[in-house]
Amino acid sequence: MFILFLKHLAQALFFLISFTFKAVLYLCKSLPSLYKLFPKKNRALIISVILLMPILYIILFGNIIPRKIPFERYETKHNLTQNDLKAVMERESSGQFMVVNVNKRGLIGSMILSGAHTFKYEFSAFVYIHSVLKTLKQNFDVGPFQINSHWIKSEKVQKTYLSLMNPFKSIGVSAKILGDNYKTCSKNGFTGKEKRLCAYSMYNTGYSHLKSSIGKKYAEAFENSRKNIHSEKFDFRVMYIPVYGYIKI
To answer: Among 196, 207, 232, 247, which is 20 to 30 Å from 121 by CA?
Structure first.
């Protein structure tokens, strides 16, 4: 695991240093006067410091110590099981973090943008969400637990789109949504397996499995995933490199 950790850290550093170098080079070409502001004898030192900034940025804002996603933390808080949340992650994103799924709503969403889009870098996902999806007012799901974009506007979920790609933050949102669904389904008289199917259906469609054929199909697939969860598949750790993204170790 340590060798894998070093490999990903080296790749991330290379990416960030290259990204920073290209940004500095672009600024110097676009604004020649900016380059002339630096004394000639100090230019090499200044450029070296600029290129070392990604390392400082990672230390300050990243999380390079790999850790496990705390599925067990939300069992008592929202009256769920670990398998509930693992099934959500498995069914919704196949365990991917930087994934955005555009829903089939409207002409653009249905014919052009719909479907899952997986990104290698966090920066790419940020640009796509803010320059394309938000501009075109699309409805989409974000991150490992595929939180719908309408939750961002909800008073219950004070998160940014990128933070929903963070498994340590989005799991709390997912647990709250699913937990609330369980409560709603319980109030409507569902118990046992039927309550789970109702809650799973609502997670995907907003409706009970008895009111939505799509929700029923989804809920049954969800239930099968829940029964066949292999704990070892979730026995991984996650590290975070700003701009680069989330990495499984």
So the answer is: 232
